[in-house]
């Protein structure tokens, strides 16, 4: 069993470099793009309520903290769905699994758009959670099978670019649609886009017979045996909980700081643009400077949250702070996925990815739930300081890993 000493190249790379072609073809990159589109739809489905929190809570008669359950519930369901899906679909072609999940997320958004009450809306969000957990568990390490080994870091960044695209396009666009046509129209639009993603995956992604022998026993076994995986799970918890305890409530936070409701979608666009650029740029960093990139994202996110708490009072300052925060968050998914891939053997990548998916979505649920409690009990800005504090251990882990590597 290998562990992560933050080696610049992964175990997978060392194992497959001889047989792999030199460069990915256009067809292979189109397959990567199709998976990235699926990630975009799934991630947008998960976090779109962030931008629609105010109109949904107003129409359905619930508080902002209670409305935050729209993010908490899918996170909890996804945490359970990730390992279950890997075990129950271990004999299925991964392409067919992704197609089925795209259909499921389309149906989930249709159900949410038709919901007449908050309870029915939460029921639809359970289906979103099922699709999120399973899709991430399968798609997280799929770059290894779509492109030659030399292009794996860039393909991984491209797949996770779907997350950046969700924040730069999905959430702001959905918020804009909600502002002009109602929040239900935003969900109908997302359902249609899920069908587009399903079609793209069906046409562009090749058959990918399962190559995993994962069982339920494989998950705790890998955690016990692999220190790199354990450290990765800790990183995921601190980063994602810290982010979502604050970002889930970014709309009321901004409005409490004097930002007009109509300006929120533009600010979310700025955040997402910074995140997307950082995700794309990470492809040239995560292969050789993983520790440094980890430290940068921790500092950028913590500083962004802290500045949002006391230094934002107008549109200009809010934009600058969200750009900084967005840069940090854009690095998160490619950095974490590379950490896990470098920690395990080739046949264990899906297991490690499912563990990351469990912790990622559990952390979303914990962060959004705790944030909702704090927002309802005190003030929206209180969650920013908690989020910033949770990022401190991330920076310390990165510094410690760097010192060990240099020793």
TrEMBL record:
GO MF annotation list: transmembrane transporter activity
Transmembrane segments: 29-48, 60-84, 96-116, 122-146, 158-177, 183-205, 231-254, 266-287, 294-312, 318-340, 352-375, 381-399
Subcellular location: Cell membrane
InterPro entries found in the cross-reference section: MFS (IPR011701), MFS_dom (IPR020846), MFS_Efflux_Transporters (IPR050189), MFS_trans_sf (IPR036259), Tet-R_TetA/multi-R_MdtG-like (IPR001958)
Annotated PROSITE patterns: MFS
Membrane topology: Multi-pass membrane protein
Subcellular location, principal: membrane
Key words, A-Z: Cell membrane, Membrane, Transmembrane, Transmembrane helix
GO cellular component terms, A-Z: plasma membrane
Domain Major facilitator superfamily (MFS) profile residue range list: 31-405
PANTHER family reported in the protein's UniProt record: CHLORAMPHENICOL EFFLUX PUMP RV0191, PURINE EFFLUX PUMP PBUE
Name of this protein: MFS family arabinose efflux permease
Species: Glycomyces lechevalierae
């Amino acid at each position: 069993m290998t562990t992560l000493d933050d080696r610049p190249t992964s175990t997978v790379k060392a194992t497959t470099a001889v047989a792999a072609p030199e460069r990915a073809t256009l067809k292979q990159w189109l397959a990567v793009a199709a998976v990235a589109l699926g990630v975009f739809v799934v991630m947008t489905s998960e976090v779109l309520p962030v931008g629609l929190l105010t109109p949904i809570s107003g129409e359905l008669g619930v508080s902002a903290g209670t409305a935050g359950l729209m993010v908490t519930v899918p996170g909890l369901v996804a945490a359970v769905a990730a390992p279950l899906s890997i075990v129950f679909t271990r004999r299925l072609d991964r392409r067919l699994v992704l197609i089925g999940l795209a259909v499921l997320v389309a149906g989930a958004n249709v159900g949410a758009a038709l919901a007449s009450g908050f309870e029915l809306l939460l029921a639809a969000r359970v289906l979103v959670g099922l699709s999120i957990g399973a899709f991430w568990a399968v798609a997280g390490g799929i770059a290894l099978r779509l492109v030659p080994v030399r292009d794996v870091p860039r393909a991984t960044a491209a797949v996770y670019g779907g997350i950046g695209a969700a924040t730069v396009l999905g959430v702001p666009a959905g918020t804009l649609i909600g502002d002009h046509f109602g929040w239900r129209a935003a969900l109908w639009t997302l359902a249609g886009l899920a069908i587009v993603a399903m079609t793209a995956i069906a046409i562009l992604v090749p058959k990918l017979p399962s190559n995993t022998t994962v069982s339920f026993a494989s998950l705790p076994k890998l955690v016990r045996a692999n220190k790199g995986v354990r450290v990765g799970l800790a990183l995921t918890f601190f980063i994602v909980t810290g982010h979502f305890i604050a970002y889930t409530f970014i709309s009321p936070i901004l409005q409490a700081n004097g930002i007009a409701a109509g300006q929120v979608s533009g600010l979310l666009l700025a955040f997402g643009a910074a995140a997307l650029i950082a995700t794309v740029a990470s492809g040239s960093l995560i292969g050789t400077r993983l520790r440094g990139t980890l430290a940068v994202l921790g500092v950028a996110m913590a500083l962004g949250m802290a500045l949002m708490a006391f230094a934002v009072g107008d549109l200009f300052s809010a934009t600058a702070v969200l750009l900084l925060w967005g840069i940090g968050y854009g690095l998160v998914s490619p950095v974490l996925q590379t950490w896990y891939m470098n920690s395990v053997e080739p046949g264990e990548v899906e297991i490690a990815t499912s563990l990351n998916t469990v912790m990622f979505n559990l952390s979303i649920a914990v962060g959004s739930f705790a944030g909702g409690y704090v927002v309802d009990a005190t003030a929206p800005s209180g969650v920013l300081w908690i989020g910033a504090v949770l990022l401190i251990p991330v920076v310390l882990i990165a510094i410690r890993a760097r010192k060990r590597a240099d020793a």
